[in-house]
Amino acid sequence: MPADVKADALQKEGTREFEEAIAGKGPKMPASSTTKAEEAELNKALEDTFPASDPVQPSAPDSSLGAPAGRKSVDANKDA
Question: Which stretches does UniProt call biased (Basic and acidic residues) (predicted)?
Fold first, then answer.
């Protein structure tokens, strides 16, 4: 058998095996490790950052400047 005929036969066999392998349902996917709350937070983060090239991350929690409630802020420029 000439080499090109043999190569064609091997190619057809490989293609047949590949098509049989991808024709099925495929492997069982693992269960998600994220909770519904985490999933919702990531979806909101995706909406907040789209379109961007940065990876999706939950937004930073809301924060404000100054001392916590019940405490006085210290004026840093007071002694300057």
Answer: 1-19, 36-47
